[in-house]
Design goal:
By secondary structure, the chain is an alpha/beta fold. It is 31% helix and 28% strand. The strands form three sheets. The chain has a five-stranded mixed beta sheet, sandwiched between helices. Strands 11-10-9-12-13 form a five-stranded mixed beta sheet, sandwiched between helices. Helix 4 crosses helix 9 and helix 6 crosses helix 7. It is globular, with a radius of gyration of 19 Å.
Length: 308
């Protein structure tokens, strides 16, 4: 949703995202006619609990200057694909709530519900992603940021953060597959015209790759390539009107070697994510490292949120 802000805030969005035992913080400025600019990216260890880390980070980075966004942990929400409800726009969330009752493991009464349209064609039933977040998880998050005196304006999900990054790399009228492999998880999204079309979690991490010997690493990457190919083939059958042009890969472990290994088993062109092609980050030189970019992809993606 669009949000207004006053003179006390810096332009753009600030993002604070928990990833494992650290907090990542990013600030991105978007201006008409220019590439997005990453003004800030940094990571802070969580040593005495997330609430204490947030409080310290708020002071060190003066986070009261930013209107902030954060991301929910995977356990706090569910993303479900459904047929779009045929009711007025303002009634869609409530019309979807009870359809989710048997699809989530928390009470839907009071849960936060949001719908995201999936790009479609005129010959098929419109589809949406329904995002349901547990009321307790949302409330705890809001209270933690309130106590830290961080102006939290948006709570989003990781899939949308990756969507924000992926759309920068899209080719006109083509879909883009984007794989983010970090120390915590492996998430594949497909975007088209800036919208999320598919999301899938895969059971692999960059930590597993880093800790494996050469033979085992090769096996893990072969298995990953097979999972990716199956997903891409299934997507092509369901969404034949969205030609996917390439697979973009962000990996915290040896990004270029990971891409090269996957490329031997996939028909789709592959490319390592390099934010230098689509954003400006001269004030954060450490982002010249592809692996550091992958580490920060969720915080940076969250901060790439657009006004509308």
């Amino acid at each position: 949703m669009g949000l207004k802000f006053g003179a006390k805030f810096e332009q753009g969005w600030g993002a604070v995202v928990r990833r494992g035992g650290r907090l990542d913080v990013a600030h991105v400025l978007r201006s008409t006619g220019n590439s997005p600019e990453i003004r800030l990216y940094d990571s802070f260890a969580i040593e005495a609990g997330e609430a204490a880390a947030l409080g310290g980070l708020a002071q060190v980075r003066n986070l009261k200057r930013y209107r902030c966004v954060t991301l929910l942990d995977a356990a706090a929400y569910r993303l479900v694909q459904l047929e779009a409800p045929t009711v007025p726009v303002e009634e869609r969330a409530e019309a979807t709530r009870w359809r989710l009752k048997d699809m989530v493991d928390f009470p839907v009464d009071g849960a936060a519900i949001a719908l995201v349209d999936i790009p479609g064609d005129s010959g098929r039933q419109a589809q949406v992603f329904a995002i349901a977040a547990a009321r307790e998880a949302v409330g705890e998050c809001m209270e933690m940021y309130r106590q830290a005196k961080i102006p939290l304006e948006v709570i989003d999900i990781p899939e949308m953060a990756l969507r924000n990054v992926g759309k920068l790399f899209e080719e006109e009228n083509r879909g883009l597959a984007f794989l983010a492999m970090t120390q915590e998880d492996c998430l594949l999204v497909i975007t088209h015209r800036g919208e999320l079309c598919l999301s899938r979690h895969i059971d692999l991490t960059s930590t597993a790759l880093a800790q494996a010997d050469e033979d085992r690493r090769g096996q893990l990457l072969e298995r990953l390539a097979l999972e990716l190919q199956r997903t891409l083939d299934n997507f092509d059958r369901q969404y034949s009107y969205i030609p996917v042009s390439r697979l973009l890969v962000a990996s915290e472990f040896d990004a270029e070697a990971t891409v090269a290994a996957l490329a031997t088993n996939l028909y789709l062109p592959l490319q390592a994510m390099d934010l230098a092609k689509v954003v400006e980050f001269s004030s954060v030189p450490e982002l010249r490292s592809l692996e550091r970019q992958a580490q920060g992809v969720y915080a940076i993606g969250a901060a790439l949120r657009e006004e509308a």
